[in-house]
Amino acid sequence: MSELVHPYHRFIRPTVTHSSFCPGCGDGTIAQSILRAIDGLDMDMDDFVFVSGIGCAAWIPSPLFNADVLHTTHGRPIAFAFGIKMGLTEKKVMVVSGDGDLVAIGGNHLIQNARRNIEMVVICSNNGIYGMTGGQAAPTTPMGVKTTTTPYGTFENVFEDISGLVIAAGASFVARWTTGHPRQLTASIKKAIQKKGFAFIEVISQCPVQFGRKMGVGNAVQMLEDYKNRSISIQEAKKLSKEELKGRIVVGELVDLDKPEMVEEVTRMRKKAMGGAEAAVDTGRS
Amino acid sequence: MDEKRVCTGRYFMMGNVACAEGAMAAGCEFAAGYPITPATEVANHLAEKLPQVGGAFFQMEDEISSIAAVIGASWAGKKAMTVTSGPGISLMLENIGFAIGVETPCVIVNVQRGAPSTGMPTIGIQGDMVQAKHGSHGDYEIIALCPSSPQEMFEHTVIAFNYAEKYRTPVFLLSDAFVGHMREEVVIPEADKIKTIYRKIPELGTDPLKLKGFLDENVAPMPIFGKGFKAHVTSSCHDEYGKRNLIDISALDKFVRKLSDKILKHKEEITLVERDYEGAEVVLVSYGGVSRAAAEAVLQARKKGIAAGTLRLITVWPFPGEEIEKMARKAKHVIVLENNLGQIYPYIKAEAAHFSEVSFLPPKLVGEIQDPEDILKKIEEISK
Amino acid sequence: MGRTEILIGGVGGQGVVLSGILLGTAASLYDGKQAVQTQSYSSELRGGSARAEVIISEQRVTDPEVRKADILILMAEDAVGRYLPKIKPGGLLVIDSDLVKGVKPGEYEILSVPATSIADKEMNNIVVANLIILGALLKKTGLLSIASMEKAIEVSVPQKAKALNLKAFQRGLELT
After folding, report:
1. Closest residue, chain C, to B294 (C-alpha)
2. C3-114+138-159 CATH
3. pLDDT tens digit string along B322-340?
4. Integer angstrom CA distances of residue B29 from A270, A283, B46
5. Chain C residue with minimal CA distance to B151?
6. A83 vs B80: CB contact, 8 Å cut-off?
7. What is the homologous superfamily of the domain B3-193 according to CATH?
8. pLDDT more than 70, % of chain B
9. Is C63 on the interface with B (CB under 8 A)?
């Protein structure tokens, strides 16, 4: 009998024996959606460079994915990815990290690179909590929730609409899904990979250990059911008032537009600097 | 090196511009930074020149992202640099540690200015000397060069790139507003006279599982991105394959030591000094712009028949303790001159004090290099 | 001539640093001498204090700081208090006499140049007062050759301002 091998096993780094996610974590769903998208586009891991920051979601590509992976400092993966993309313009650069990494400590890199509309894919696993360090409040933690750093309940307003921020900053593709929408998520990741521009996908993702258990919102299955119940498509949401949308998760492809992309603009600038001569982006060193 | 990159000729050139020309000549392809006095001329000049050879300067949202982008570009295979002043370095320090941890070639130019904090932006002091070595957390070694003239701003920038590429490490060029804004004759040689180095990379097609791309005292080949090496690059404790290990203390020990040993093993070839102390009883030890006042004071002292000499440190990090010892064994008195309140003095004293008297002559005003007359007085006093 | 230390003090926007660059360029690239030019300025680009130092020597310039100025050029009243103590006994003090009024006689020779009013009346542009001063200085001292200074202006001044700057320099040569 031949050995059974998972179809995406070929995407996993051979030296990796297990993932570092807790049972029930949504990051496994995100990992698989990314790999399904790459497979669905008939692409190879060598077409990509993955960049991650610090936090649970950063461990999705690092070390799991058998590709070039840069695991960077807290909050800065998009800034590192900027340099990688400018150096390897022909590669797809994908940042995978959490809400704390990308939106709290690294918020300005997210804003400024969305503004630049530099071609890269940023996948933000939003679990509403600092998981790896043991359940501290995040900007995305709902107001009033007790966490290890807010034993009397959080007293800050919650960051409700990360995707809205990225849209306002100027990204050309923005989608939001939950881990209860793996097929839709995969489809959006495919689009994001092909997008000429800054493509941001926010994935509302369950952390049953730090968020679910400690805050009494249930286990992974209950959290996923809750996501599904609260989700509403962007098309449906447009028909409702702000009041009616309270507590709902608006999902779908929120923005998909074409606008000047930075790598192309840099190539244009180089041509100008060279006096109209063909811009040599790569020095041709092998 | 590409002739388009080298503007061969004789110029009356500002130090900061000479630095940018040095970067061009060294093969810099990517630069990122954030505007700051007194370093902006380097960035401005690179912004004009780099695109002409297919590169670019990028103005980032802050210095944190500047150094991050530089590290990213370096992993993409590009020769990369950033330029800033003290406040910018303070923001960069975490990622400088990252660059050291994952052995990333890059050049960091610090045109030092009046500090601490926002200080006095247009005044040059040598206030960030120890920050370069110890600013980021943990034990590590770094390379730092101290130019004393616009000509050296050009030459040392080329050396900085070569060291960075050869030893896969960040290299500091520790200039200051005084030298950075100084204009003097700069002679840029012909392109074929400028030696440039590019990092070793693994043979294409090497099995990623067999690729030892990290933690080799003899400098591992760099598994740059985009070549199919499937490099896993993490600044968390890792082994020579890049594999993360967050459990074994022995792995941490190896991680810390190998990174440092890589620099220390090559210290002799990294160390650049200028010795002029043959037969001298009093030796002035200095670096950067101050060394010019030291040289003048020694000229005057010799005219008066005093056996004085100089030792100028061009490489300040790794600290050239052996050079200090060699000098101190011959001298009776060592006078340390710096344009600060004595940052490298303790290091010099630790090496020299076994063999000679060591004293520090602080500047009268921090920000103004010592008056050769004052130095001469001190020499005379000591040699009485 | 051994080492000549020149200090120029004024305010931002007067071309203080450009004067230093021109002296250094002329000496270093065209007059067979060695020169170092350094500068300091406050953070305001216009109206703040500005200082340029130039050292010209037959030999390599070791110490790059002006310790006692052989030539002190003052282009603003503000600069008098700040820099007059830096002049060497017996040195030459050059002033823009339209702007610098409060200089008392002392252990120095004074070269008084109404540079701003000449620039204003004859060239309709006070910005080139510094070139008039440089012309007067070279005429008076023979510090550098006139041809070298003209070449320095050629390479250091933006294309569209060259003619005006040369004219102002030549006007300065006619003074004293």
Report:
1. C63
2. 3.40.920.10
3. 999 999 999 999 999 999 9
4. 12, 9, 10
5. C36
6. yes
7. Thiamin diphosphate (ThDP)-binding fold, Pyr/PP domains (3.40.50.970)
8. 99
9. yes
